Amino acid sequence: MKDDKLLRWVLALYTALVFLFVFAPIAASLVFSFNSDRFPTIPLGSFTTDWYVKAFSNPEVWDAALRSLIVSSVTAVIATAIGFSAAYSDYRYDFVGKKAFLVLALLPPTIPLIILALAMLGWLSMFNASGLTLSIIIAHTVLCAPFAMAVIRLRLNQMDPNLEPAAWNLGASEWVTMKSVVIPFTLPSIIASLCLTAAVSFDEFAVAWFVSGLNKTVPVVILEILTGNIDPQVNAIGTAVFLVSITLVVIAQVLVLRSAKKPEAA
Amino acid sequence: MTTKTTKPDTYAIAWRLPLIVWQGLFFVGPLLFMVAMSFFLVKNYRMEVALQFSNWQRMLSKDFFWDAYFFTLWLALLATIITSLVAFPASYFLAFKASERLRRWAIFFLIIPFFTSYLVRIFAWQVILAQSGVINAGLSYLGLGPWQMLNTQFGTMVGYLVLCLPLAVILQTFSLANIDKRLVEAAHNLGCGRLRTVFTVVVPLAKTGLIVAAVFCFILSFGDFVSPYYLGGSKPPTLSIMIVDTSKSGQQWPRAAVVAIMMIVTLLVVAFTAIGFAYRKRGK
Predict the structure, then answer these.
(1) Mean pLDDT for chain B?
(2) What pLDDT score was predicted for residue A208?
(3) B134 lies within 8 A of chain A by CB
(4) Residue A6 burial (C-beta neighbours within 10 Å; 0-12, 13-18, 19+)
């Protein structure tokens, strides 16, 4: 039907516009970061790398970048370990209170960050543990563990339930089976989870802002620059941040998709 | 699938403990503490343990609190409706008109922004929407504008859309793609018009997923402080901005805790009502 074709094109165009809206800010911040105008508009100003020079000669930015790197990598490791153990427990066992266990495992992302930030600040202050780099790691792990669990649980879904019993029958203990069967099988999802949780932690600003004190991460520095005035430095820093988190997320996705395609391979 | 063990052994317990301990200590603990904190007192910028209702009284008796409360509720509802409507045609296209391959790529790309710096994207929109920004410059070529978009409710809505749209399209697409296509064809074959099919067949079939997507939009926009602050100009402040202001300046954590608890209660009520509605059996 001719009518059908027209509708298809209109909807396709509309969907393209939605994608344009979603990706416009990412493209804009890339373009603006090389643009000489302080208040970018069209027509664009001339090409410049000044904002990068300015941002990267700022010791506060380097300081924050190093801290973000530490926080996100340590968070990724702890969150993935917790997520893995939770996913494995859910995969293998039925136990009293399992529903409560799953709620505990998946609830954190549904609580607004600003509320979690306040609660975490109060709680950690009680133990004199706020204002440290460690405080950010603790809080970010809470946020990231659910994502880790989800990614690893998906992969465990593809594992033949007879695989573990087979190893036990051949004389392997449960721990040995874990080490030589389950972990190798879930390895792609473990790496995916490391990347994804690192990206979440790398971009999180609300909780980090509340609990970090003077130990700022990159998003907190951005937040503070924003509170001042429009400063194109943010575009330069932001483009670098986008590059890091997009890379991490894409790696995670490719790993998840590729392992989903061949469920037989162990 | 799951093996039933008669007695939980050390191996089983070892895999269960990390989550219980960590989320118990650093998720449940802080949230319960926040409830306790709402009864504490602040003297000389220091929090003192107490059991006083003064924070609750002080916040809940003030007009500015209720103004902010209903304003936030309104903004979040509006954002939920707008996002759901904006997302729907795109989700419809991806679920029914696009090839399997295109759909997979689209989802792949939509997941990326969900995990990438929201803050930087909002900053980019701040520049785009500014009085002398890209959009107004474009409009001036057409002899229109300039329009005030920054520091208005429109600005806030753009921000909420940035926050919620990718997730909404993903969730809606999944729920639409799971519909039994034969039912849609049957409706067509029986002479049901296209729009009528969408509203009487497609939407009811995908109801659960569509509502879940809407609930996520509501949760995200209800709790966000960046869009109403940097794009909406904090005029008037939302509950989330109130939490930031109360706790950052003046160290009034207990009063901020009151606001936070009111927000959680509201979110729970909205989420459970909506989910109850989503899973309600069709029929009289």
Answers:
(1) 90
(2) 95
(3) yes
(4) exposed
Sign for the pseudo-dihedral over CA of B234, B240, B246, B249: negative
- pLDDT at residue A190, rounded to an integer: 97
**Of B2, B11, B123, which has the smallest distance from its Cβ to A174's Cβ?**
B11
Residues in chain B within 8 Å Cβ distance of A113: 223
Residue B102 in tokens: 């295109």
C-alpha–C-alpha distance, residues B125 and B153, integer Å: 14
Query: Residue A118 is nearest to which of B109, B121, B260, comparing CB atoms?
Result: B260
Quote the pLDDT of residue A262: 56
**Distance (Å) of CA A87 to CA A17, A58, A110, B17, B200:** 38, 42, 19, 12, 39
- Rounded mean pLDDT of B100-113? 93
CATH T-level fold of A53-261: MetI-like fold (1.10.3720)
At B284 the pLDDT is 38
Under 8 Å CB-to-CB from B224, ≥6 apart: which residues?
A112, A114, B159, B160, B163, B240
Q: Tell me the whole-structure pTM to 2 decimals.
A: 0.92
| Interface membership of B240 toward A (CB under 8 Å) | yes
- What does the mean pLDDT of chain A come to? 91
pLDDT score recorded for residue B7? 62
Whether residues A18 and B169 touch (CB distance < 8 A) is answered with: yes
Q: Report CB contact under 8 Å: A245, B116.
A: yes
Q: Is B78 left (phi over 0), alpha (psi -120 to 50) or beta?
A: alpha
Instruction: State whether residue B47 is helix, strand or coil.
Output: strand
- CB-nearest partner of A119 from B30, B89, B110: B30
The SS3 assignment for B198 reads helix
For helices B207-223 and A113-126, the axis angle rounded to 10 degrees is 50
**Cα torsion for B18, A212, A243, B102, to the nearest 10°?**
50
Residue B281's pLDDT band (boundaries 50, 70, 90)? low
Tokens 């490791």, located at residue: A77
Structural domains of chain B, ranges and CATH numbers in brackets: 68-233+270-279 (1.10.3720.10)
Q: Is B113 helix (H, G, I), strand (E, B) or coil?
A: helix
Q: Which residue of A has its CA nearest to B18?
A: A82
Strand partners, A93: B3
Contact A41 B20 (CB under 8 A): no
The number of CA neighbours under 13 Å toward the Cβ of A129 is 13
**Which pLDDT belongs to residue B140?**
86
**Intervals of chain A under pLDDT 70:** 1-3, 261-266
Element (H, E) at B43: strand B41-43
Contact B19 A41 (CB under 8 A): no
Burial of B94 per CB tally in 10 Å (0-12, 13-18, 19+): buried
Residues paired with residue B43 on neighbouring β-strands, in sequence order: B46
State residue B282's pLDDT score: 57
Q: Give the N- to C-terminal CA distance of chain B in Å, as an integer.
A: 38
